[in-house]
Amino acid sequence: MKRIITMLAALMLAMAATCGAAVKVYQINLDDEIGASTWQITRAGLNAARDNGAQLVLVHLNTYGGEVGAADSIRTALLHCGLPTVAFVDNNAASAGALIALACDTVIMRPDASMGAATVVSGADGQAMPDKYQSYMRGIMRATAESHGKVLGADGKWRWRRDPVIAEAMVDPRVKVDGLIDETRVLTFTPDEAIRWGYADGKADNVAEALAQVGVDSFEIQRYEPTWVDRLIGFFSSPGVQAILIMIIVGGIYFELQTPGMGFPSMAALGAAVLYFLPLYISGVVSSWIVVVFVVGLLLMLLELFVIPGFGIAGIAGGVMMAGAVFFGLFENFSFSLGGVSSLAVWYSLATMLVGIFLAAGCIWLLISRYGTRLTGGRNQLLKEQHVEDGYIGVDMRLARYVGDEGVTLTDMRPSGKVMVGGERVDAVSDDGFLDSGSRVRIVRYENAQLYVEQVSNR
After folding, report:
1. Phi/psi-derived region of residue 404, left when phi > 0, alpha when psi is between -120 and 50, beta in every other case
2. CA atoms of 33 and 61, how far apart (whole Å)
3. In 3D, which of 229, 274, 211, 207 has the Cα closest to residue 44?
4. Domain tally for the chain?
């Protein structure tokens, strides 16, 4: 279906070019590290291209790569945008950039450009990730190459327009392509090599020449200019920031459960939740049902805290709903079905969620430990001590054990005096007024650190 739509759009584009009409071209610049911001820019740019009636999308590429998850989302959006797409590689389309270029219908490269080297590496030290990651990247590259279908060769045989094996060779140095590369290195194309092997369709020094390569000589170009909202949404949608927001949400809920009422921890958790969900909702990454699930979970938590004593079904259900909403908010999901979500997105989401939880656990441990007390100057717990020299006294509650026992007054009670009870000489106050020494009394209560007695019989 995607190929049919693209072919129809290309046919309309050719007709417009033939008639001499200016072709409406929408240009999206991806000249930074591939990540949440570039994904937001691509999504907004493609929406704007459709809204403005563009006939062609030109992706201006100059990147050394970035996050695989964001690149996969950009790839999917380009493959299904419904408009002819041209990638102009000026000057680099490395790693994740190669995947994005491969997703476009046409690839034009500057004479000194390069494209390839799509091995998945660690962002910490640049070392190649384990084969599990490489295997998935090989699969994405192969599927993207296959999406362009087959063409009829000069020999009368059908062959892949972009050979999937070559796409794998950009990821895995073990893949050999006869006449192109052996098993000792990862593939990176020069423009001439890319044209020879079907991975580029021409060379150009600038955008106008690149459009001429696809038969567009008369064009009206419009560039998507990212707004500060796009940058802000991209910032809060990045995995690192999302992990920190999850940490604040989890930590805030934990500390709120340890203290009565609503204070700073709950406000911090609520603020982090707003910063977490609002950019995703505004950009259309998640649907409203995910936000509704989180709010319902939050209400159940509040019900458990302030209405229902203890921690039972409402609290557990609320916690599960909130955790589920946070998890599903990490990747695009517009319905209750996960059919359209790639396993790579799920793994990245799970990793971000776990990092946030581990960070929260570490912060909780730090703040409740003695190191946390030193770091916060003691403001994270109650440390006030009441010393005797400051006038504070303790109340001895041992005398309360005599309530109900009988004893004898040792002195006249006026109304206070001494009473012998349980073999112990104690102070007491008479509830019957004045009593003589030797009167039989019963201890009736212990109140305000004082025993109170009533007369049983007179002597």
Report:
1. left
2. 11
3. 229
4. 3
Q: What are phi and psi of 176, to 5 degrees?
A: -110, 135
Residue 399: per-residue pLDDT: 83
* pLDDT of amino acid 98: 94
Output the pLDDT for position 57.
Answer: 95
Is there a single domain that holds both residue 281 and residue 406?
Answer: no
User: CB of 204 within 8 A of CB of 88?
Assistant: yes
Angle at 5 between CA 2 and CA 9, to 5 degrees: 135
pLDDT at position 340 is 53
- pLDDT (0 to 100) of residue 308: 66
Q: How far is CA 249 from CA 265, 346, 401, in A?
A: 9, 21, 48
Q: Measured between alpha carbons, how far is residue 355 from residues 63, 119, 248 in Å?
A: 27, 24, 12
Q: Which residue blocks in 19-155 are alpha helix, DSSP H?
A: 36-51, 68-79, 96-103, 131-146
Look at residue 25 in the predicted model and tell me its pLDDT.
94
Structure token pair of residue 249: 């949400």
Which of 89, 76, 85, 81 shows the shortest CA–CA distance to 104?
85
The residue range of the domain holding 416 is 398-457
Whole-prediction pTM value?
A: 0.66
Which tokens hold the place of 278? 């609002």
Tokens describing residue 283 = 């950009």
Q: Which residues of the chain fall below pLDDT 70? A: 1-20, 123-126, 258-263, 283-286, 305-306, 308-312, 331-346, 370-394, 457-459
Question: What pLDDT, on a 0 to 100 scale, did the predictor assign at position 1?
Answer: 44
Reading the block at residue 267, the tokens are 């406000």
Peptide bond into 164 cis (omega under 30): no
CATH number, domain of 421, equals: 2.40.50.140
pLDDT attached to residue 86 = 95
Q: How many CB atoms lie within 10 A of CB 229?
A: 13
CB 243 within 8 A of CB 352: yes
In a domain? residue 171: yes
Q: What is the pLDDT of residue 252?
A: 82
Could you please report the per-residue DSSP string of 86-113? EEEEEEEEETHHHHHHHHSSEEEE-TT-
- DSSP at 128: B
Torsion over CA: 146, 149, 151, 155 (sign)? positive
